From TrEMBL:
Originating species: Strombidinopsis acuminata
Name of the molecule in the record: Dynein heavy chain hydrolytic ATP-binding dynein motor region domain-containing protein
Gene Ontology cellular-component annotations: dynein complex
InterPro entries: AAA_6 (IPR035699), DHC (IPR026983), Dynein_AAA1S (IPR043157), P-loop_NTPase (IPR027417)
Domain Dynein heavy chain hydrolytic ATP-binding dynein motor region intervals: 1-178
One annotated GO molecular function: ATP binding
Gene3D superfamilies to which the protein is assigned, alphabetical: 1.10.8.710, P-loop containing nucleotide triphosphate hydrolases
Gene Ontology BP terms: microtubule-based movement
Family membership noted in the UniProt record: Belongs to the dynein heavy chain family.
Length: 323
């Protein structure tokens, strides 16, 4: 029977070795000890936290934390290395956790990094602009703790977009996903003087050909789809002297039928390949956001390629919008 089949070998990546080498390349002298702590934390989180569709503790998630840790180390050269890594682990993972898992994850981090509790990176100027915008539009919650959570979630989204060019904002209807995205865009405009253009696409409302484009099999004529047209426009060169950020926001359910074709854009290749052979590169000024209820029908390959921000209604709910 064995002769009738072709054997295929699958190898699990050696996370500890990869982690240690990446920490060394980022300039950490305690790479061996810190790599052990980091991989242990991810192993425990995978085993002890609740099972959610949008959780990912794999190699890509590990890599994004290591990149952020390297950036923090360069920016805060005097800070101890374990403090730098702990801050990166906390700030990169907290945005994706549901309400019940936050204290559990904090407990795990406290066990592995005892006695450490670094301040979050403030982004005080951006936070000021966020609060101004929310006051102006009547989004301020009467409860100060809830309002602080709301502002914190917007800052978390900003932090996630710094390390990932594709971010998923996950949460039930009425949790405030659209408000968070629009508030961040408005605050960035006030903070940096760079306007943010948001193109919204509901991919489930159109067919695949209407979304990505159609190549006529007879005439070989190419007709652009909704996504391909917007993607080309968003990734055109900017006008000199007029910098602008461009966000493509996919609003609606994510499933493998339409989103798998975008995996090459979401990973480090950053290239969308169309049926006519066109290859469009995602530029530095362009980011992709997914605004989605849950990721029940998304594949792990898609989830691992994106940064995650979970908007939990238990933190906030509809109260500020209702008031």
């Amino acid at each position: 029977l064995k002769a009738l089949f072709r054997p295929v070998t699958m190898v699990v990546p050696e996370l500890l070795m990869i982690c240690e080498n990446m920490l060394m390349s980022e300039g950490f002298t305690l790479a061996k000890v810190l790599a052990k702590k980091m991989t242990t934390l991810y192993k425990l989180a995978k085993e002890q936290l609740s099972q959610q569709y949008h959780y990912d503790f794999g190699l890509r998630a590990l890599k994004s934390v290591l990149v952020m840790a390297g950036t923090l180390k360069r920016n805060y050269a005097d800070m101890p290395e374990d403090l730098v890594l702990m801050r990166a682990l906390r700030d990169m993972n907290m945005p994706k956790f549901v309400f019940e898992d936050v204290p559990l994850f904090k407990g795990l981090i406290k066990d592995l990094f005892p006695g450490l509790d670094p301040q979050r990176v403030g982004y005080e100027d951006l936070k000021e602009k966020v609060i101004e915008y929310m006051d102006l539009n009547g989004y301020r919650h009467s409860d100060e703790d809830s309002f602080a959570d709301q502002v914190n979630k917007i800052i978390q989204l900003y932090e996630t977009t710094l390390t990932r060019h594709t971010t998923m904002v996950v949460g039930p209807t009425g949790a405030g996903k659209s408000v968070i995205i629009n508030t961040l865009a408005a605050a960035i405009k006030e903070w940096t003087d760079e306007p943010v253009r948001i193109d919204i696409i509901n991919a489930k409302m159109v067919t695949l050909h209407e979304l990505y484009g159609l190549l006529d099999p007879v005439s070989r004529d190419w007709t652009d789809g909704l996504l391909s047209k917007i993607f080309k426009e968003a990734n055109q060169d900017q006008i000199p002297g007029k910098p602008e950020q461009r966000w493509i926001c996919y609003d609606g359910d994510v499933d493998a039928i339409w989103v798998e074709d975008m995996n090459s854009v979401m990973d480090d290749n950053k290239i969308l390949t169309l049926a006519n052979g066109d290859r469009i590169r995602l530029q530095r000024h362009c980011k992709m956001l997914f605004e989605v209820f849950d990721l029940q029908y998304a594949s792990p390959a898609t989830i691992s390629r994106c940064g995650m921000v979970y908007v939990d209604p238990k933190n906030l709910g509809y109260a500020p919008y209702y008031q």
